[in-house]
Each structure stands twice: as structure tokens, then as C-alpha cells.
Write a sequence for this structure.
């Protein structure tokens, strides 16, 4: 989700629950999670730090909790130094921290609905979780709704009527997307992801030696199927020798599928889903080429 939606969503919740005084803390928690966009240059230079990419460590429960504590501490320090207006009344520290956490966890929940995967349980596991249930037109409608609501709030302040309208429209768009996602799951077998087209989805199937992608139209059914060999000129046991390479781990972390082919001394790992433009996000490292001498014993 975009930063406007994250901010407006927690603002509406805190306002309607009678916690308007804590809205600044909720917004801090909601937006601090995307701080990973500020240091994206680091994982580009150091392959082993791929979890510092956007949607990585900060989008885990542990990362969100850590950032919430750091953000609140920084806000209190700046306020105490007179660099931020206002002070936190005595006894309000825990409620303020709870609101920062609420904003951060709401951010994770909304991204879980929208994203193809987040490492929610890191460092326990790097496995990514996500429903990816918003076709791009619905995603854009949510963004426009949030931007328009934020503009009204900045001009006139929040109101119960605006909060109710935002909640109803936002919930309606989520419900529509959930029904569409359920319909695709009911008609197909595999992992499904929405596309730029409001009624077309990419369905991914992963077998032992092959994998495939289906383009599924909600009105016409399967319109195209693509099959890929997972191993060319190389065996799975040989591939396993390279599993610990940071470049390969980074590639696999962002990939929907992974196929591999060997040409002489070069071994190239591909994600055909992203290479063919079936799904464009995440854009990082759709393929990686290593040499046979790079194997980790």
C-alpha cells in the first residue's frame, strides 16, 4: 500500500475510537515502516543484505516493533530538546507506544493484503507471506481515496462523516478484491497474483522438474499457459552446491519461480515470471549468473 493509505487508515481508526490525541503517534508508526526505501542502495551493493530492500526486515513483526520503539524514542528526544512542539503528559508513554505499534502493525496488515509476500516472521524464517489480492485498478482507487481524504482532512480537519465514508468505501474495495481472489482460487490450482488488467490473474504452479504459469481471465477462463523446465544441463544435486551464495539467495528471495541452466562454466538462474513481464514487482534481480568455481563446499 502507498504511504497515504497507511497514514489515513490509522488516522481514521484512532479518530473514530476516541483517540484523536494519539493520531501523530499512530501516523509515525504507520509511515516509519517504509524507511527501508531510504537505504535501498545498501543491499544493491552487498548481496547478503537483501532483506534491507523495501518490503524486507522492516516489514516483519520484529522489525516493525523495533522501528516503533526507535521512532517513539526519537520523537520524545526531539521533543525534550525543543525541536518538536508539545510534550507527552506523564503516564501517557504506554498508550503512545501502543498507538505507534498500532500504526506499524496496521501497515503490515494492509501490505499483507496487497503485497506478493512479506517476511512477517523474520528472523525465524525468511518465508514471505501475502495475499496479493488487489488488481492494479483497485489499488489505484484505494490510493486516490486516501489522497482525496487526506486533502479534505488537511483543509477541514477530520470528521465522523468523512471517517465513516472512508471506512465504508475502503472496506467495500477490500471485499470486492477478496471475492475476486476467492473466485480465482476456486477455479484454478496454484498461487495466483493479480495483474494490471482488472480481471486477469497469473497462476503459478511449481512441480518437481517443471513449472508453469497460467493467464486466467475471470470471464474467459485460462487464456494462455507457459511451461518451463526447472533444470537444463544441470542436476538438482549440482544446483544445491550453490544454495549458500548470497547472490543466489537474494535472487530466490524475490522470485516467484526459479529455473536454472548451465552453459559451459556459467550457471544462470531465472525467474521467468518477472523476466517475461507477467508480474513486474519486485523488480530486483530477476536473474543471476554465477560460475562453476563459485560453488560453496
Amino acid at each position: 500500500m502507498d504511504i497515504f493509505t497507511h497514514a489515513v487508515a490509522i488516522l481514521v481508526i484512532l479518530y473514530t475510537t476516541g483517540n484523536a490525541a494519539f493520531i501523530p503517534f499512530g501516523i509515525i508508526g504507520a509511515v516509519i515502516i517504509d524507511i527501508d526505501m531510504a537505504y535501498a542502495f545498501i543491499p544493491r551493493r552487498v548481496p547478503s543484505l537483501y532483506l534491507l530492500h523495501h518490503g524486507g526486515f522492516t516489514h516483519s513483526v520484529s522489525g516493525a516493533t523495533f522501528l516503533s520503539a526507535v521512532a517513539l524514542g526519537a520523537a520524545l528526544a526531539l521533543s525534550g530538546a525543543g525541536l518538536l512542539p508539545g510534550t507527552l503528559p506523564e503516564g501517557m508513554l504506554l498508550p503512545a507506544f501502543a498507538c505507534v505499534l498500532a500504526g506499524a502493525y496496521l501497515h503490515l496488515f494492509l501490505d499483507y493484503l496487497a503485497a506478493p509476500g512479506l517476511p512477517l516472521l523474520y528472523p525465524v524464517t525468511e518465508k514471505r507471506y501475502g495475499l496479493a489480492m488487489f488488481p492494479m485498478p483497485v489499488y489505484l482507487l484505494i490510493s486516490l481515496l486516501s489522497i482525496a481524504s487526506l486533502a479534505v482532512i488537511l483543509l477541514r480537519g477530520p470528521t465522523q462523516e468523512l471517517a465513516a465514508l472512508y471506512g465504508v468505501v475502503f472496506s467495500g474495495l477490500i471485499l470486492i478484491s477478496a471475492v475476486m481472489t476467492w473466485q480465482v482460487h476456486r477455479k484454478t490450482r496454484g498461487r495466483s497474483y493479480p495483474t494490471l488488467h482488472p480481471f486477469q490473474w497469473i497462476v503459478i504452479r511449481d512441480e518437481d522438474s517443471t513449472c508453469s504459469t497460467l493467464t486466467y481471465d475471470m470471464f474467459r477462463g485460462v487464456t494462455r499457459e507457459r511451461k518451463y523446465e526447472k533444470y537444463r544441463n544441470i542436476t538438482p544435486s549440482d544446483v544445491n552446491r550453490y544454495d549458500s551464495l548470497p547472490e543466489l539467495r537474494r535472487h530466490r528471495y524475490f522470485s516467484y519461480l526459479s529455473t536454472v541452466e548451465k552453459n559451459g562454466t556459467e550457471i544462470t538462474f531465472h525467474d521467468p515470471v518477472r523476466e517475461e513481464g507477467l508480474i513486474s514487482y519486485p523488480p530486483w534481480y530477476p536473474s543471476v549468473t554465477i560460475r562453476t568455481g563459485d560453488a560453496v563446499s
About this structure: Strands lie at 191-194, 200-206, 210-217, 221-229, 231-232, 259-263, 266-270, 287-291. Residues 191-227 form one domain. The chain has a mean pLDDT of 92. The chain has three domains: 3-132, 191-227, 228-292.
